[in-house]
Input
Amino acid sequence: MGDSRFSSESGYGPQRSGAGTITRVRLENFMCHSSLQIELGEWVNFITGQNGSGKSAILTALCIAFGCRAKGTQRAATLKDFIKTGCSYAMVEVELKNQGEDAFKPEIFGASIIIERRITESTSTTVLKDHQGKRVASRKQELLELIDHFNIDVENPCVIMSQDKSREFLHSGNDKDKFKFFFKATLLQQVNDLLQSIYNHLNKGDALVLELEATIKPTEKELSELQRKIRNMEHVEEITQDLQRLKKKLAWSWVYDVDRQLKEQTLKIEKLKDRIPRCQAKIDSRHSILESLRDCFMKKKAEIAVMVEKTSEVRRRKDELQQSISLATKEKLELEGELVRNTSYMQKMVNRVKGLEQQVHDIQEQHVRNTQAEESEIEAKLKELQCEIDAANITLSRMKEEDSALSEKLSKEKNEIRRISDEIEDYDKKCREIRSEIRELQQHQTNKVTAFGGDRVISLLRAIERHHHKFKSPPIGPIGSHVTLVNGETWAPAVEQAIGRLLNAFIVTDHKDALLLRGCAREANYNHLQIIIYDFSRPRLSLPHHLLPHTKHPTTLSVLQSDNPTVINVLVDMGSAERQVLVRDYDVGKAVAFEQRISNLKEVYTLDGHKMSYNRSHCMLKVLYTLAFVEAEVEHWFLAVWEGQSTRKLSSGKSYRELFDRFSRGSVQTILPLNRRLRTGRLCGSYDEKIKDLERAALHVQEEAQQCRKRKRDSEERHQDLQQHQQNVKRRCFSAERNQMSKELAFQDVKNSFAADAGPPSASAVDEISQEISNIQEEIQEKEIILEKLQFSMNEAEAKVEDLKLSFQSLCESAKEEVDTFEAAEKELMEIEKNLQTSESEKAHYEDVMRTRVVGAIKEAESQYRELELLRQDSCRKASVICPESEIEALGGWDGSTPEQLSAQVNRLNQRLKHESHQYSESIEDLRMLYEEKERKILRKQKTYQAFREKVRACREALDSRWGKFQRNATLLKRQLTWQFNGHLGKKGISGKININYEEKTLSIEVKMPQDASSSNVRDTRGLSGGERSFSTLCFALALHEMTEAPFRAMDEFDVFMDAISRKISLDTLVDFALAQGSQWIFITPHDVSLVKQGERIKKQQMAAPRP
Output
């Protein structure tokens, strides 16, 4: 890591803009430097330091920054060799001054330009930044444009003279090396190479024109061959003309043939029209018959309607009687079935009584045969089994209680595991949310615009840039990127809560621009973009004091700042930012919103997300929570109202009826939970602290999740142990149940065997059977009474059916005459209807004959006539295309030949023409067109090649002229160099001469020392001492510097071989020259520069000593 110590003193010199001068150089992991920053003055800069301190690395870094290749620096073979050992990259950053009339694109870069070149093991990139450090360009073309604008050529030794170039030039006695230095420094070498390459291109152009002219000769031979073919084909044209005349007659013969068909079709239409009156007379006669039948049909139908009215009552009574008979018969059948069922049931009860009486008799006999001894033995055995059963029941109940307790513990452990799992899921979800917010903030940190729409807004801005020429005025947006907070980031959460919906919006000046912006949004896949139309020409709104809220607390508008007045106007007009008051906590906000009754107050926002608003009709306190929570609560409330559960509780403990009352009553405050998921920070100036807070929160959440996972593992282990214990208990419980069941079965077997074999029946059993017999006998008596009632009801039903049948028969006999009359009238009506249908069919037949055979035939004939007319028009149009009809009349008119006859003649002529011209595949017209086309091509090529030759000649003349100017300029530069060289030598009392031979490419320096003034001896620099030779060479270099232009120049170790006096004179000469010449100069030397005169335009810096 290198350090720099600076010293500067007062001085005077000319004033200039300094555009293109270097103000700062920063190196990172470059060569021997881990981190170095050098601030340079605009005039003369001396950098000193011990060998190995990294002085020369600064010039190498300048060469690399301005696009020089690694080999061009003569310090490394590849760029990655410049990376400091142990590092993965190197970075060079050069800052140029960009002020004054010579500034490069000041509207884009500003007052300074930063060139940053980053080198890695595999790649290297160059980036141009503006004065704020924002990236402007990254292509090499922009860097070349900048270098060309400032005339910076780092490969020119007069711009940057490195150690190697200093040794090669200042201390080399080779004349050819000095010539190369002079030739390259004065850009003569570049111009010479360019002119030589132009000479080579012109020679290649001459050869190419000769080759192109040689390609025309084969085409000229083809032209002569085509001309011969054309003469042989001319005699075929006579046959072709005869064929054309026949084709014209054939075309018009189709027209005349259609005229003949039109005459025939006209006669056919007239005959068909004569049949219409006869057919119409038959239709009229059938129509009169049909009208009379219809009148008779209507009269008969009226008579039947009257009969129907008379017989409708009879029919109704008949239907009623039939229905009554059906119901009575059904009731009779039901009674018969019920009687049969009761009779059968009573017989079964009688049989049951007999069986019970026999069972009583058998029991009494069995009781006499049983003995008393067997009964006492079985009772003792039963008591022993009962004791074993009681013990087994006690054991089984104890095990079931233990199993129930274990099940309850398992359920608690399972609930605990589920609760811990939910906590872990909540922590993981919270951690993911925090990580997502960190990623968003990191993205916003890279590009602040992404905070107001994400990557979609970047795509939208690029689309707007592509279509910017279509907009009347460029859209403004997103609004969030055009506003900043005035007093830090204290009010950022409240401001985002107040105008958050407007931060992503864009502003346009009219509806047309809004449609264009909507199209750009679709192109960028940015749906639901909020677009605000506002007049850009309106000045910033001036808000009177009496229209603002009278409070000491700030408003949203007062804490925001924007350089664009349209943005401020939109926040006022669309967001009411001037009427939104910001407070720090809930209690202050409640007092401001509801107790102080401040005029012109619309809303109050707190730092923790509360929103409070006051309305004169009623006051409402809104504490906004997440949108999802509010929608869920409202949906539950509507379901509760629908189900009638208006007293269901919310998660906050309030009933839905209370919530509804709070929203509906006038002066009641409404409280909703806070918005815990609200993300803020889009208006922050720096995201580092917020990212660190979120990372700490994420770490804390992860630790809580780890603790939950540990508790979950412990609970799962306890749950597994309880499950194993419960399985053991269940197995023992199952064994106890089997034992208890076996005891009960043994007890039941002994008891059954005692009841069946040894035990005499008790008196209670006989009494029970006797009681059952008595009950059955009582039921039999009740059933006999029911059977008598059913028999009586069935007799009544039979009598009712008979009465209804008699009534129905008498009704049918009385209505028989009326029914017969009605049936006869119906038969007459059917006969009339049949005749009516026959007449209608006959009329329809004649109408169909009229429609199809007469009118249809006429329409078809007329349609054919129209088709023939269209065919004649089409044939006439086609024939007119071939030739007019007057031409046919001129040829003798139509001789009555049919189209078929004329077609046969055309075919014969075609065969003859084919026979005559079969030896040539092309027609004479094609040959003539081909001949003319080739002739045009040859003429065009001849003119083109002649134009090429003229252009080459003009280029050669211009090149010769430029070569002459180049030689004259080279001669002038040689003289100018000698004059300026003598001028610098004269400051030490020395005179000299520079001899330049352009043919041999040599440059020699001759000087005449003061001690040789009395003689005419002129010595070569090789005969001088080291200091004299270095000074003379330095004068030569300064003379070259005066002949070149560059915003800055750098020289490294230019005084290494000078003695103290020569160094003093050389340094003074260099400083005076640098201050007079006006460029920025950077001198690097390992020697002490305390002898250099002081001045405010002379800056001295000393590099830190190298680390051992």
